[in-house]
Write a structure and sequence with these properties.
Helix 9 packs parallel to helix 10. 37% of the residues lie in helices and 16% in strands. Strands 1-10-7-6-5-4-3-2 form an eight-stranded parallel beta sheet. Strands 8-9-11 form a three-stranded antiparallel beta sheet. The chain is built from ten helices and eleven strands.
Length: 270
């Protein structure tokens, strides 16, 4: 993947977009891969039509804990989600990334085995590009990258933490230390930040870091969120977001995207 000449532009979030186009959206948007296939397919196609060069499978929360299901359901969500994204990208040069989000911790749950089970399934069905996003720490991430590369040395792996405007995750992990650490790991192709903060916050933060000779990704929310009655509101416009993302690209960030659909005024985060 050559992204030195121009940034690789990702799609936006799936959950917020899905909620905006359905009168009665499913509470877990990943289940729409099974029960509302055409809506997910059309969303992927809309992102591609808008100029995205990479899309994420609708599988961010595809794990037994988040879906409150057995692995048979998780498997169905992942397989169908990958098939839908591949269909949407057919006939284009758009890359499809297997999207893996953090698995909520539960006592007695072996998280390593849980992640490996998901990765193995993606590898089995042909995924070659992986994005691990919205993590609060790098626990398991280096090991997962080595595991994937051991199975497919040509796989491309992007890993992102969710950081505050001050550059820390919700459990206090430093974004700066994360970049310094994982950029030295040969099995991780790109790293960066997503969600939580708006584009201006992440633009200011990324300017404080040394990103020279590193492939960095930035996928912020469209603005800094405000929570009212358990719903998250983003008041900034798509024009504002585009201007900020252009500035982020200018400082040397090679991968850019959006962690919510900027066409919305409100959302529930996927």
């Amino acid at each position: 993947m050559n992204i030195k000449e121009k940034p690789l532009i990702f799609d936006g979030a799936m959950g917020t977009y899905y909620a905006s186009v359905k009168e009665k959206p499913l509470s877990k948007c990943e289940l729409a891969n099974i029960y509302d296939r055409n809506t997910i397919l059309n969303i992927h196609k809309e992102y591609i039509s808008a100029g995205c060069m990479a899309i994420k499978t609708n599988t961010f929360g595809a794990n037994k804990i988040s879906l409150e299901s057995d692995f048979d359901t998780v498997k169905d969500v992942i397989v169908k989600g990958y098939e839908i994204a591949m269909e949407a990208s057919r006939g284009t040069e758009v890359l499809v990334f297997a999207d893996i989000g953090p698995i909520p911790f539960l006592e007695m749950l072996d998280l390593w085995e849980a992640y490996k089970e998901i990765v193995d399934l993606f590898l089995k069905i042909g995924a070659t590009h992986f994005i691990f996003e919205t993590f609060s720490s790098d626990e398991y991430l280096p090991e997962l990258s080595k595991y994937i590369k051991g199975k497919n040395p040509k796989a491309y792996i992007l890993m992102e933490l969710s950081v505050s405007p001050e550059g820390f995750t919700r459990i206090g992990i430093s974004g700066k230390k994360f970049i310094e650490k994982v950029s030295q790991i040969s099995t991780i192709d790109a790293c960066g930040f997503n969600c939580f903060s708006g584009p201006n916050h992440l633009l200011k933060y990324i300017k404080t870091l040394n990103i020279e000779n590193k492939t960095i990704s930035i996928m912020p929310n469209s603005g800094y969120p405000t929570v009212i009655n358990n719903r998250t509101f983003f008041n900034n416009s798509k024009e504002y977001f585009a201007r900020q993302m252009l500035e982020i690209a200018k400082v040397g960030v090679g991968i850019i995207g959006d962690r919510k659909s900027t066409r919305l005024n409100s959302s529930h985060h996927p």
